[in-house]
Please model this.
Amino acid sequence: MRQIGKKPGVIFLIMAMLFSLTGCGQESPLNPKDPVSLTVWHYYNGSQQTAFDTLVEEFNDTVGREKGIYVQGYSQGSVSDLETAVRDAVSEKVGADAMPDIFSSYADTAYEVEQAGALADLSNYLSEEELSRYVDAYIEEGRIAADGTLRIFPVAKSTEIMMINKTDWEPFAAATGASLDSLKTLEGVVATAQRYYEWTDGLTPDLPGDGKAFYGRDAVANYFIIGMQQLGVEIFRVSNGEVTLNVPKEKLYRLWQNYYVPMVKGYFGAYGKFRSDDVKTGEILAYTGSTSSAMYFPNQVEMENDSHAIEYVVMMAPVFEGGENYAVQQGAGMVVSKSDEKHEYAAVEFLKWFTQAENNLAFGCVAGYLPVQKEANRAEKLDQVIVDRDLTVAPKTYDCLTSMFQGMDGMTLYTNKSFQNGSAARKVLEYHLADKAAEDRAAVVAALAQGTSLEAASASYVTEEAFEAWYHSFCDALNAAISK
Model:
């Protein structure tokens, strides 16, 4: 009987020991009387930085004061500036600042820092129950360590949407019968863009060959990665940090036909730094870009001889005809520098607070980012936060976020796993075809100026032989990039 009587105590002891090994059972090393100071490096600017700073101040005045954590945020400028500052700090370059406790990072940069052994294992500070609150794909993206443990904490995400100048679309649609429904597929976008080029060309019959581009896209690398995924091919297949290239010719031919060919013929365009700039100058009517770019969609078109206000339409990004509904998953997370238990623990406490649904939406609805917890990805939750915090949200950003909330159930978010030289490989995707398209389009424009028809001027650039030449050059460039 005495043995039976001891069992509850033994079981309690075992459970207590197991509980102490999990993130949720970890005893806090913090002391409110001796607060720990954390530095955060990020790339937020303008309204994004204001929103971030406001939340940091709120944290410091409430939970931070209670637990003994004080956070200071510093913008490093652009993403490129931040990456340079981090690399200099990791390599202890002369004159470089010391590593921050937390910094914003995309997966490729985080992977480099992880390979240097400079990132904390966040799995030590999060329970399974806590992890389950986050969108599964966002957590999976952060498992970049060789052993699969978490290194990137998701804080704000984005995907891609299509935005359209509704005001100038309407007379085109009325004249030609064009429908927004046709823009749901990439092939439909190309066909509509050709129709728009021909329609605008016909408006000035005394100036043949002066048709206008309809569409453009930011991030051509996303076009490759997601386009191939929609067609059933993972272009970068990564296992244990090793990458295998998958570049089947017949799939890439579809990507070439639906980007390069319309670019060369002038149906698509890329003129300014971003496609939202091209909408503003009246060069294009529609583009595919990040959800966070919605706030930059112009309120009016400003051309040399015309300036007029425009309204907008938000649509899901087009998908290849017959393809699976994949959409890009992007957006920097936060990583924690490897240091000591007190600083690492405090850093994760701040990140958990920042990503609580109410706080994360307060940041996201100003910055244009999607929240990272499952419960926050609902229009009802967003509306509640806007009312509770008395927030002013730009209509374009609100419409973009709520459209994504409605559409996420029908899509699969995807981002490739990190690998060595991943940044170099992505640059090949971003520039190899786009640069060639720009160069060849310039030659076509020169021929048009000499009175050559569009078909004749573009004929030599859109043949199967031209594709073959580009395909082999593209594959060579990709192989060289991953072999550096």
User: Anything to note?
Assistant: The CA atoms of residues 358 and 388 lie 9 Å apart. Residues 1-23 have pLDDT under 50 and may be disordered. DSSP finds 20 helices and 14 strands in the chain.
